[in-house]
Amino acid sequence: DGGITQSPKYLFRKEGQNVTLSCEQNLNHDAMYWYRQDPGQGLRLIYYSQIVNDFQKGDIAEGYSVSREKKESFPLTVTSAQKNPTAFYLCASSISLAINTEAFFGQGTRLTVV
Amino acid sequence: GESVGLHLPTLSVQEGDNSIINCAYSNSASDYFIWYKQESGKGPQFIIDIRSNMDKRQGQRVTVLLNKTVKHLSLQIAATQPGDSAVYFCAQRTTGRRALTFGSGTRLQVQP
């Protein structure tokens, strides 16, 4: 089955720790994205990537980092600099940033700081 | 700046009725729009999209209308079913910023 896989589904972090959220896609998409969703709110863009070894900051990049070493993978690290990391994190991909097509989403990772 | 917002945070309809979910956007450079459906604890699912050179597009039980003059988008769901209960988001893409910008969502509740 083609799609986007996020892991883990639930993640707990102690304050001051960095954690990495995994996102893998087998859709052969060039573009990948990370969004953050807070309860009762819409999605806010953290980072996006249009090709391997390239990524751009979104609207709320502070306290986060990403890498794009492989086309299939776009991991997100939530660093200790992110002061309010508890949220639902969604990864998405699309064919290309240059083409107007839909983005496909994973099932999300719920991160909780304990 | 870019923003996408929704008029109604919660919409309650009777099963079998038609539903209309509205969305306003502010950037006249927006050229592509998508409606997504999100069920609790899951990722958003694509429903239907429309490009700025169109004013209407129909899918199975859904219709999207685009009014560029007033920067307004709507999603119409015919014969609403209990399985349609979810949060609906509109999203836009603009020239020069290719990542989608999302609105805050409307919760659709279908009453039996």
Task: Please give a handful of descriptors for the protein shown.
heterodimer, A: 114 residues, mainly beta, seven-stranded mixed beta sheet, four-stranded antiparallel beta sheet, 11 strands, 0% helix, B: 112 residues, five-stranded antiparallel beta sheet, globular
Structural notes for this entry:
The complex is a heterodimer of chains A (114) and B (112). Chain A is mainly beta and 114 residues long. Chain A is 0% helix and 49% strand. Chain A contains no helices and 11 strands. With 112 residues, chain B is an all-beta fold. Chain B contains no helices and 11 strands. Chain B has strands spanning 4-5, 10-14, 19-25, 30-38, 45-51, 56-58, 62-67, 72-77, 86-94, 97-102, 106-111. In chain B, the strands form 2 sheets. In chain B, strands 2, 4, 5, 9, 10 and 11 form a 6-stranded mixed beta sheet that branches. A 5-stranded antiparallel beta sheet of chain B has the order 1-3-8-7-6, with no helix packed on it. In chain B, strand 6 and strand 7 form a beta hairpin. The mean pLDDT of chain B is 90. The A-B interface holds A 4, 6, 31, 33, 35, 40-45, 48, 50, 58, 90, 92, 97-98, 100-108, 110 and B 4, 31-32, 34, 36, 41-46, 49, 51, 89, 91, 93, 98-105.
